[in-house]
Write a structure and sequence with these properties.
About 45% of the residues lie in helices and about 10% in strands. The chain is α/β, with parallel strands linked by helices and about 525 residues long.
Length: about 525
């Protein structure tokens, strides 16, 4: 395992800012705020994110063309289109130019328009998608000329002002490194999550939580990582960054192979944009993973990957027949309740993994049903995972980290290849106090994340923090895996001396007597019988 725990958290999550990143974030938020005032807060991301992506593609195309001219491969811009067609015929896709942006569709053309801007912009994005089929459903997902009730949703004036703001900064490869642009893009995604409330859970996992999960996953260079509920792609991207930072020499030669599936159309588009802006490759497909998993082997069986990581929707509803009629043999451990799909997701992830699964899910998933008489679906599924010695660790996270819920989550680490010294044991970590208060959400610092990772790697008891429990102990607790059951914490302000409590109780009793006496007098004066 890699020894450096969370030393790159600030870099990955944007706290370690340089001047270029700060300026870029400022420009992007200025542009986003213009649109933000014109549309519903949950919708403005769908207008600004494609524009940033469009600007990067255009500036990158210009850079690549100029480079080809400097190298003598072509003499003029017009020749690049013939070169691209020749490469497509020979290789199936362009080699010299990744994405083709004709002059009529180029950012530099659209930004100069003064009339029909929304119409021409939409036409340009759709034209780019036609010329670059791999961008279909990504760059062309928005109609900037759309109307509602006979009125434009975003006026040409607003669009023009947004374009001019984004035009302040060039976004080509020689201007902005992929890491910088990617971090700025995820900064915006986080800002959207702050505005989106309940819907934020559909596309965003807090950065420090994602980085913690990736460290627990510990993927190796050249391996495959799969996220079946990939949202905006953050867990996949951070997996690649983890390998890049911790195995720098190997990562360049053998980067991770990334795979993801996402149900929602625009969230799928964000994920694809996010991966490209980070200068990464990923096979991301759209669809409902539980009902229709997209990654299958040639014989139609569920495909497996080395590592699986996800933050799926918590307590999701799935009719029982979805599990019962599953043709991929994923739900061998049992059928979850129809209104709580947590163990459905976990079983899909387990069936898709060769080595390791890291998932964050609702805390109830590790405790519901324990202590009840008779059968309980979630407890009985949990029991099978425990008895097969598949669960390596369960980590309780702090409350109020997530934008779509104030509730805490639990990270479950499932390891199909547990080290021998960990067999027959489960590490429980109560990290509920490892946070700083923030606005609007709490957050974990590098020290908090590092403490959790260190405890996981050392796999030992730490007072009031971690405990290694045996399977026998878990059986005695009826397969309750909640860390708080085994590591109860007395938080600051909860413990008081008994004499102090008794003194307060006497004071309350005296005040009650005075109030009762006064009320009794008032009732008698009003002609009622007193109650004392």
């Amino acid at each position: 395992m890699v020894e450096s725990e969370s030393t790159k958290l600030n870099m990955v999550c944007g706290e370690d800012k340089n001047e270029k990143l700060s300026r870029l974030e400022s420009i992007l938020w200025e542009a986003a705020s213009l649109i933000r005032g014109s549309v519903n807060p949950t919708d403005y991301k769908k207008y600004i994110l494609p524009l940033i992506f469009y600007k990067r593609l255009s500036d990158t195309f210009t850079y690549e063309v100029n480079k080809l001219i400097e190298e003598g491969v072509i003499d003029t811009v017009d020749e690049v289109y013939e070169l691209v067609e020749a490469e497509r015929e020979e290789h199936g896709k362009p080699k010299s130019i990744r994405y083709v942006i004709p002059e009529e569709y180029h950012w530099d053309t659209i930004v100069k328009l003064s009339t029909n801007i929304g119409e021409k912009l939409t036409e340009a994005l759709r034209g780019i998608a036609r010329l670059n089929p791999e961008l279909s459903g990504i760059i062309d997902v928005v109609d900037f000329n759309e109307t509602h009730g006979g009125e434009r949703i975003i006026s040409d004036d607003i669009i023009q002002r947004v374009l001019q703001i984004l035009n302040k900064m060039k976004m080509g490869p020689e201007d902005v490194e992929p890491d910088i642009l990617g971090r700025a893009y995820e900064y915006l995604i986080r800002k959207f999550a702050e505005d989106s409330g309940q819907s934020a859970g559909e596309f965003y996992t807090p950065c420090e939580v994602a980085w913690l999960m990736v460290n627990l996953l510990d993927p190796k260079p050249g391996s495959e990582v799969y996220d079946p509920a990939c949202g905006s792609g953050g867990l996949l991207i951070k997996s690649q960054l983890y390998v890049k930072y911790n195995y720098p020499e190997e990562a360049e030669k053998r980067p991770l192979k990334l795979f993801g599936q996402e149900k929602l159309a625009f969230t799928y588009a964000i994920a694809r944009m996010n991966v490209i802006l980070h200068n990464m490759e990923a096979d991301i497909r759209r669809g409902d993973t539980i009902r229709n998993p997209k990654f299958l082997d040639r014989d139609g069986k569920l495909r497996q990957f080395d590592y699986v990581i996800a933050n799926p929707m918590w307590n999701q509803d799935f009719p029982e027949d979805v599990y019962i009629n599953d043709k991929f043999d994923r739900f061998k451990f049992g059928i979850p309740p129809s209104d709580k799909g947590d163990w459905g997701w976990i079983q899909h992830m387990f069936a898709s993994a060769r080595e390791k699964v890291v998932v964050i899910i609702d805390t109830g998933a590790v405790s519901r049903g324990s202590g009840t008489k008779g059968t309980n679906r979630e407890r009985d599924i949990r029991k099978k995972f425990v008895e097969k010695d598949l669960i390596e660790a369960v980590i309780l996270t702090p409350e109020n980290l997530f934008y779509n819920t104030p509730a805490a989550g639990v990270i479950i680490v499932i390891n199909k290849n547990k080290p021998e010294e960990r067999r027959g044991k489960v590490l429980l970590i109560n990290a509920s106090q490892e946070f700083k208060k923030g606005t609007p959400k709490n957050y974990m610092t590098e020290e908090h994340v590092g403490k959790i990772i260190k405890a996981y790697r050392e796999f030992k008891d730490i007072e009031d923090f971690s405990k290694v429990v045996t399977l026998e102990e878990i059986r005695k607790n009826d397969y309750n895996l909640s860390p708080s059951r085994y590591i109860p914490l007395i938080t600051e302000g909860e413990y008081r001396e008994i004499p102090e409590i008794l003194q307060d109780l006497r004071k309350i009793e005296q005040e009650t007597r005075v109030i009762d006496s006064e009320l009794n007098k008032i009732l008698i004066e009003l002609g009622f019988d007193g109650y004392l």
